[in-house]
Design brief:
385 residues; alpha+beta; Adenine-n6-DNA-methyltransferase TaqI, Chain A, domain 2; four-stranded antiparallel β-sheet
Amino acid sequence: MQYKLGNIAIFIRNGVNIKNDKSKGGIPITRIETISDGIVNENKMGYADIIDDRYKDYYLKQNDILMSHINSAKHLGKVAIFNGDKKIIHGMNLLDIRLNNDICNSKYVYYFFKTKRFKKQLNKISKQSVNQSSFTVNDLKEIKISLPLLEKQKMIANKLDKVQAMIDLRKKQTEELDKLIKSQFVEMFQSGNYPKEELGKLCDVRDGTHDSPKYMEKSDYKFITSKNIINNGIDFSDVKYISKKDYDKFNTRSKVNYGDILMPMIGTIGKPMIVNIPDSEIDFAIKNVALIKFLDNSQVTNIYIKYLLDSDYFENAILQNKRGGTQKFIALSDIRKIQIEIPPIELQNQFAEIVKQIDKQKFLIEKSLKETKDLQESLMNKYFL
């Protein structure tokens, strides 16, 4: 039977408007970042030194669903479900959806919010602006969901929970392997007795174009900025497109090749990645991204530099060079001047071989992760017709 969301919810509401930051204490307050990872993350909450119960009507309750209703189109409608019993105040810019559990199972509805069926309905009520999209509570209440008997809802939610647990396990395994690489890096290169040189003298360090091109609705050429570089790769799902003329023009300055390192310079600084796309398949130009190219007979390998720039060593080096106000950035000249320790090339190659072997394990785990995600999508398509 079909229901409107507004008819199965006790309430759907925005949070209380409290000016907060991350430096104070008291009861935590949800922010838009709180669910950016798909969970209710206490490390991404704000504080306002509130220690009394003046906002008790806005405390989260078990099985409340938080939803992003003001965000980029890609993240609009993102959800997380609250499973704790700690006092947490529901803040602005996230909707709190509290359901009538005599009618529906919260976890079942939570999984519905992750389906293509929901996204399709959401697109119809979303209003687009230059930098973000949004929808109203009243429009959300009109979205329809099919509800089988309550016991069947619970059965479906339990099955999907088991699949999600497998996904979470695979993700944790890849995270542990990443930690293993980083610990191996520290163990092999922590002596600090190696000669040093500026990165700009060891490598060819450039950045992308400083121009803002006219974007196209679609083309064969993509435009990559700092926000597209995530999780050791390039996210092409929210990419902009440019003309061949602009693509050729920008690449006279900063042509990307296989084996280069790309690193964001604005916003989230650092998080370098090694380009593993063959030259013949590279169809993008870059902006606000550092490009590190390696010279013939270089004293450093790209894997060594990648993990050095991904370490506390780099974090400490750039803390004094971060610039900007709300949006941080690091200048190309500062990147070039970073002092790089130069261990023996044999030791760097030994580390590269270790990384290669660990990456083989990661590949198998990530293959299993993809298969499990495909299973999850298949089940959700089956259950949420």
